[in-house]
Write a structure and sequence with these properties.
The structure holds two protein chains of two kinds. By secondary structure, chain A is α+β, with helices and mostly antiparallel strands. In chain A, 39% of the residues lie in helices and 11% in strands. Chain A has helices spanning 28-36, 40-45, 48-69, 85-88, 93-105, 169-194, and strands at 108-109, 115-116, 122-124, 131-133, 135-136, 142-147, 154-157. In chain A, the strands form three sheets. A three-stranded antiparallel β-sheet of chain A has the order 5-6-7, with no helix packed on it. In chain A, helix 1 runs antiparallel to helix 6 and helix 3 runs antiparallel to helix 6 (169-194). In chain B, helix 1 (20-35) packs across helix 2. The radius of gyration of chain B is 20 Å and the shape is flat. Chain B has two helices and no strands. Helix content of chain B is 67%, strand content 0%. Chain B has helices spanning 20-35, 42-80. The N and C termini of chain B lie far apart (56 Å). The chains are: A alpha+beta, B mainly alpha. Chain A binds chain B through residues 49-50, 53-54, 56-58, 60-61, 64, 66-73, 106, 142, 161-172, 174-175, 177-178, 181-182, 185-186, 188-189, 192, 205, and chain B through 1-2, 4-13, 16, 19, 22-23, 25-34, 38-39, 42.
Chain lengths: 205, 82
């Protein structure tokens, strides 16, 4: 096979530049899989050990972050730090799923139709999502009652608590930060999967 | 109100700085998995990077403390002294 980059006449052969290997073609499917689940892009390309390590790191940060900050650590709409979600969203369906669950199951819908976090003395009506006031009985047990639309009977819940506790201070900062770091690291993994050649057979690292 | 894991936040106001260690470990786990040519010395590299991040953050914290306590006080006293 002829040399694709012949050395010009009169030039010093030892100074000739080495021929670079052509760059690997982009792998959009691997990038998409890496976005769908941390490490899945590298697994698709045949790098099983790397995939496991990427998944372990991203999930560690995500789970610890959620454990520290609670559901408030992922909030696309309300908590005043919504722009952090632009970093967190790179964990893919994990972040979007937690945010969806947060918005739909752990917030209340007030009389104006606005979705917001419940106050510490508000219970969430599990049918309509409306806030219901929490009362305290003579034994100090909190209780609330709610009505199902179309029914005249009120259902009493005892003990009754707000759907979640608001996170604040260090817990809020660190929970949000952990998940944002998880997202940004997964973005690095997505870009790496996009431009990484497939693993050679027998070298599935 | 009982604590509900992953729904309610933890009370970590007195011990939050210990969380630097799992944060550094998570960063090193992913970064080294992506960047290393081979994974033969992976765990060693992860340990080194985790330590580097933790020590680096401690040094940055110490430097910030010195700036605020020593340098800013020095400047303030000079301004106050006219």
């Amino acid at each position: 096979m002829p040399d694709p980059s012949p050395v010009p006449l009169g030039s010093n052969i030892s100074a000739a530049r080495p021929v670079k290997a052509p760059p690997a073609p982009p792998q959009p499917l691997a990038a998409l899989l890496a976005f769908a689940f941390p490490g899945a892009g590298h697994l698709f390309l045949g790098y099983r050990a790397r995939a496991v390590r990427i998944a372990a790191g991203v999930l560690l940060l995500f789970i610890v972050g959620l454990g520290i900050g609670g559901l408030d650590a992922v909030d696309r709409k309300e908590n005043g730090l919504w722009f952090w979600f632009y970093g967190q969203m790179w964990t893919g369906p994990l972040a979007f799923g937690v945010d969806y669950l947060h918005q739909t199951e752990f917030k209340v819908i007030d009389h104006r139709g606005a979705i917001r976090s419940a106050a510490p003395n508000e219970f969430r009506n599990p049918v309509t999502g409306a806030p219901e006031l929490i009362h305290v009985d003579e034994n100090g047990v909190p209780w609330a009652k709610y009505q199902v639309p179309g029914s005249t009977n009120a259902i009493v819940v005892k003990p009754a608590y707000p759907p979640k506790r608001r996170s604040s201070g260090r817990a809020s900062e660190l929970g949000t930060l952990f998940i944002a770091i998880a997202g940004m690291l997964n973005l690095v993994a997505i870009i790496d999967a996009m431009f990484k050649p497939r693993a050679a057979p027998g070298h599935a690292r | 109100m009982p604590y509900r894991p992953f729904i309610d936040p933890l009370t970590i106001h007195d011990s939050w700085y210990w969380l630097l260690i799992p944060m550094a470990l998570g960063i090193a786990l992913v970064y080294k998995a992506v960047r290393l040519q081979t994974l033969e010395k992976y765990w060693r590299q992860v340990a080194i990077m985790t330590t580097q991040i933790v020590i680096g953050m401690i040094l940055l914290g110490a430097a910030s403390y010195l700036i605020v306590v020593a340098y800013v006080r020095f400047i303030a006293e000079r301004i106050a002294g006219g």
